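Page 37, continued from 36.
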């Protein structure tokens, strides 16, 4: 009777898996989940988003809300909101009610200063960890913005930083890698995607395998990752231009890999090109379709991915132009400017939220009506970033 009960239970699990449109296989000892169809929820999502507020607006006259290329939002234990206002080289602090409280940091290279900071994380004691890639460091600030310490020696640049297990920092590669000298000697193997450091910046371990596309420009672009870390120190990687989602244990073991059905191809359309004219060099990046723009994990262990229903049309597209000016003493000035036909737009149906369970199975999706350049979850609050067009964060409460 016990054997029969176990068999029936196994058949029920298998039937549920098939009903959810999944195929599970093992590749090199790792579980791979192939998701198809709308997911276990079908066409009726079992979660909803309740709008709370919008922080920032590209057209506002309030200088405290006038963000320029914001990159990140973080929440401390008291519910205060910290917006990393990258283009203005500052952090804007708001109360739980959205009221402006203070500006932290300023442009520069000294203690407590940034130059286009890229990421922000807050620990349990209120210290702020600010990724400062153009200064090749992580700045650690006290809750009042005063300099606490600087973490240097980041050999692959300063990417996103998260708090992992006690006493550890989990870091990823920078989202954009500048090609200064494409003829420089390349390493025999591509660098790992995730590095774990102690709180002083000493490397502890590295993991996450990039794909070698046998082309340096493609490798730099196609191995771009968006990452997040949960309360247990587990790491989640989403690949914007690969149909690939991965979950790692805190010690770096790959737990599973997942993909899903996409209504467009992820093939490489153009590998890009490097051209030289005398002492000048121009780089045209690869042309790749994109399938994700953010990832976060909620308190129930569900994985939220900002995905795409389709590719953006030409009139919807926007990006950043970067300029670098060198002076006679070897110093440099970097500038960023949003550009593209879609800068004036605020609405689109090209994005959606995909929700997965802790084992990589697609539960369902929610439609969105705005552009999404980042996704963040703190408690039951979900934030969607519109970096270039609206320069704002939309805050929602997760219900369900």
């Amino acid at each position: 009777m016990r054997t029969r009960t176990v068999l029936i239970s196994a058949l029920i699990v298998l039937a549920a898996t098939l009903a959810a449109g999944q195929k599970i296989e093992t590749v090199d000892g790792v579980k791979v989940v192939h998701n198809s169809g709308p997911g276990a929820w079908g066409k009726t999502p079992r979660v909803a988003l309740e709008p709370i507020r919008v922080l920032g607006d590209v057209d506002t006259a309030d200088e405290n809300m006038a963000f320029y290329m914001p990159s990140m939002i973080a929440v401390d234990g008291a519910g205060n909101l910290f917006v990393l206002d990258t283009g203005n080289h500052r952090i804007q602090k708001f109360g739980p009610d959205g009221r402006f409280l203070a500006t932290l940091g300023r442009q520069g290279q000294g203690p407590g200063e940034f130059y286009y900071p890229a990421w922000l994380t807050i620990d349990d004691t209120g210290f702020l960890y600010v990724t400062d890639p153009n200064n090749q460091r992580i700045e650690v600030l006290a809750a009042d913005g005063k300099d606490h310490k600087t973490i240097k020696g980041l050999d692959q640049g300063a990417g996103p930083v998260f708090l992992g297990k006690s006493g550890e920092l989990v870091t990823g590669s920078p989202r954009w890698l500048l090609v200064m000298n494409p003829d420089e000697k390349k390493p025999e193997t591509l660098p790992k995607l995730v590095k774990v450091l102690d709180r002083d910046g000493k490397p502890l371990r590295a993991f996450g395998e990039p794909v070698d596309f046998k082309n340096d420009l493609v490798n730099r672009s196609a191995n771009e990752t968006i990452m997040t870390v949960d309360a247990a120190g587990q790491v989640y990687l989403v690949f914007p231009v690969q149909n690939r989602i991965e979950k790692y244990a805190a010690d770096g073991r790959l737990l599973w890999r997942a993909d899903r059905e996409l209504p467009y191809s992820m093939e490489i359309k153009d590998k890009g090109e490097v051209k030289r004219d005398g002492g000048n060099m121009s780089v045209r990046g690869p042309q790749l379709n994109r399938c994700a723009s953010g990832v976060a994990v909620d308190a129930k262990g569900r994985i939220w991915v900002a995905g795409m229903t389709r590719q953006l049309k030409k009139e919807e597209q926007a990006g950043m132009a970067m300029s670098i000016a060198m002076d006679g003493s070897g110093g440099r000035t970097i500038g960023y400017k949003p550009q593209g036909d879609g800068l004036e737009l605020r609405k689109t149906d090209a994005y959606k939220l995909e929700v997965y369970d802790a084992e990589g199975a697609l539960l369902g999706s929610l439609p969105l009506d705005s552009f999404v350049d980042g996704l963040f979850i703190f408690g039951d609050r979900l934030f969607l970033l519109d970096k270039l067009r609206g320069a704002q964060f939309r805050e929602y409460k997760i219900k369900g």
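The first strand starts at residue 22 and ends at 27. Flag for discussion at group meeting. The two ends are 38 Å apart (CA to CA).
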